[in-house]
Amino acid sequence: MSRAELEGLVTRLLESMCRMMWGFAPRMIPHVVRNLGPGRSVTWFAANMPRLLWTMQVLGPLRTHLAAVAISLHNGCTYCAYGHAFALELIYLRDRGRLFPVDARTLAGWHDVPVRELGQRLRRVLQEAGLHAETLWVDRTLALAADLTRPVDVDEARIAHLVRMLGRMNQIAVEAGVEPDEAQNPINKDRALKERYAELRAVTG
Question: Burial, 33: exposed, middle or buried (Cβ in 10 Å; 0-12, 13-18, 19+)?
């Protein structure tokens, strides 16, 4: 089997895995396989995805996606910021019954904002959303992403893993210029919720 054939096989395998989890095949996958190579791509996903899923269980999906948004924006990655911000929006709508104050495309557009201002913007949005406790997590996440501090407990160690994991994905996405696609969470498969979201956004603008 040639390298190109092996890359195609691994790409289809990883796309199938993501389709099962999230209901779509991310545009990012071919770029990951091309960048890391077929073998390292499989190893990378095997090493990182279970830890991500466990972090979702322990910290909760909203906090995990919020951390991923902050990290991706710090790294200048529109693709990952959007995918996690859209997931955050859908989870917030499902759990709170209303829209998150800022939509995913607007959030993803903050990819070139200086870290200090980024933190301020995210804190304001979270306060408006009634997620006051999450403001502390944004501060700690950005500090970890900027390598200004070290994890002080197990939960922060999980965020530090997200910093490393997303750092690689952010770099690949930025270099490849990958355009945003969908929410990187199983909630993306909830068509009724997504239709409700679209209707509400259409009304609010």
Answer: buried
Tokens at 93, concatenated: 């709508």
Best CA proximity match to 184, nearest among 88, 101, 100, 116: 88
Lookup: tokens for 134: 């999450």
Q: Are 38 and 71 in contact (CB under 8 A)?
A: no
CB of 115 within 8 A of CB of 139? no
With a cut of 80, say whether residue 110 has pLDDT above it. yes
Return the structure tokens found at 17: 């895995």
Encode pLDDT of 165-175 as tens digits: 999 999 999 99
Residue 94: other Cβ atoms inside 10 A: 15
How many CB atoms within 10 Å of residue 150? Answer: 10
Distance CA 131, CA 103 (A): 16
Distance between CA atoms of 35 and 131, rounded to whole angstroms? Answer: 37
Show the CA angle centred on residue 120, arms to residues 103 and 201, nearest 5°.
Answer: 10
- What would the mean pLDDT of 129-156 be, rounded to a whole number? 94
Q: How far apart are CA 78 and CA 69, in angstroms?
A: 9
By CB neighbour count within 10 A (0-12 exposed, 13-18 middle, 19+ buried), where does 87 fall? buried
Find out whether 91 and 134 touch, Cβ atoms under 8 Å: no
What is the rounded average pLDDT of the residues 46-63?
96
